[in-house]
Design goal:
Helix content is 37%, strand content 15%. It has 15 helices and twelve strands. The chain binds pyridoxal-5'-phosphate.
């Protein structure tokens, strides 16, 4: 172990750089090599450190140590994507179990759980998790196996009172899960707020460079960790060595990147809030955000996602998002480059129109992932796109 990591109470930047990394015993290299190998020799049958790439790989461990340390968790499991993390987690449930989901959530979660896993007898119930009385009432029926939250939500950036949700779930005997992709452990640590499991799409902020797809699951519960790693091996949800290498590299700058994402997002949101062509800006850091007080209490930063509704019809909104010169029109989020998308037409388009309407997702909502470019260039870009499209 590096002498630095033997110390306790290291800051997040030191942790992000050093956790899990030891100089190579043969070469002294301070960066782990990519273990591009699927099978390992055994000195005698059944005696091994590593056996086969689907169950383990030398690149797993340094990465998992870093992910666990950043999230303040005892265990982390790295998997091939955010939806692979959701797949591993849902194996804690069995046919007939009921799972509470928020009304606003990532479209791929809806597709995986409601549209796919319902086929196997799991029952998903969407509920507005801002309404704690409603959640408590539903949990009090005593038949909920899991409460699955996202906060901030994708794409409405709703904030849920995580400490309260975790304690309600615990009192009802339900497993609590939080998708922490939007906040990252730099802004929010749901395990410390009482959640049992945290998951991430590491394809976003954790990786940070739009060059990998990955996922992670963190927990302090050894049995749950054992179950998700069993699912990883059994279903084939393992990460590939090159992506693990890139993810470990990306993590080193996570704290630094998040500082810039947040300061850019705040300036971007404040600018758009004053723009005459803008109807509404949704950013948890703004005082106008309906759950700003909860965000201030449970988050140490507000991350880099900003949602906006323009005072224009849908066609003009589509023209605006197609007219940027620095910001790229694309799905995904959380990388160094700024991205923009219209969730109802893109990432959340798989949610049926009537369900989107019932859950309050407007067709014209625009979601920005504010990158780490120079903020003046981002503001100039949004201004020129609006000027070009709005008469
Ligand atoms: C909040 C959230 N969770 C999970 C995922 C799924 O992650 P992945 O694309 O890595 O499977 C996404 C993808 O956009 C997301 O936005």
């Amino acid at each position: 172990m590096l002498r630095a990591m033997a110390k306790t109470n290291l800051g997040p930047a030191t942790t992000a750089i050093h956790a899990g990394i030891e100089p190579n015993p043969v070469t002294g290299a301070i960066v782990d090599p990519i273990s591009q190998c699927s099978v390992y020799a055994q000195p005698s049958p059944g005696e091994f450190k590593y056996d086969y790439g689907r169950s383990m790989n030398p690149n797993f461990y340094p990465l998992e140590k870093a992910l666990a340390a950043l999230e303040g968790a005892e265990h982390a499991a790295v998997v091939s994507s955010g939806v692979a993390a959701m797949t591993a987690i849902i194996t804690l449930c069995k046919a007939g179990d009921k799972i509470l989901l928020p009304k606003d959530l990532y479209g791929g979660t809806y597709r995986l759980y409601v549209q796919l896993f319902s086929q196997f007898g799991l029952k998903f119930i969407q509920i507005d998790m801002r309404d704690l009385d409603g959640v408590e009432k539903r949990l009090s029926q005593g038949d909920i196996k899991m409460l699955y939250a996202e906060s901030p939500t994708n794409p409405l950036l709703q904030i849920y009172d995580l400490e309260k949700l975790a304690s309600l779930a615990k009192a009802a005997g339900a497993v609590s899960v939080c998708d922490n992709t939007f906040a990252t452990p730099m802004c929010q640590r749901p395990l410390q707020l009482g959640f049992d499991l945290v998951l991430h799409s590491a394809s976003k902020y954790l990786g940070g460079h739009s060059d990998i797809v990955g996922g992670a699951i963190m927990t302090n519960d050894k049995d749950m960790h054992t179950q998700v790693t069993f699912a990883r091996k059994s279903i084939g949800l393992h990460h590939d060595p090159l992506s693990m290498f890139l993810l470990r590299r990306g993590l080193k700058t996570l704290p630094l990147r998040m500082e810039r994402h947040q300061s850019n997002a705040m300036k971007f949101a404040q600018h758009l809030e004053k723009h005459p062509a803008v109807e509404q800006v949704i950013y948890p850091g703004l005082e106008s955000h309906p759950q700003h007080d909860i965000a201030k209490r449970q988050m140490s930063g507000f991350s880099g996602m900003v949602s906006v509704i323009f005072k224009t019809d849908l066609d003009t909104t589509k023209k605006i998002v197609s007219s940027f010169e620095v910001i790229t029109l694309a799905e995904s989020l959380g990388a160094v480059e700024s991205l923009v998308q219209i969730p109802a037409s893109m990432s959340n388009q798989k949610i049926p129109e009537e369900v989107r309407a019932e859950n309050g997702l407007p067709d014209g909502l625009v979601r920005f992932s504010v990158g780490i470019e120079d903020i003046d260039d981002l503001i100039a870009d949004v201004d020129q796109a609006i000027a070009a499209c709005v008469p």
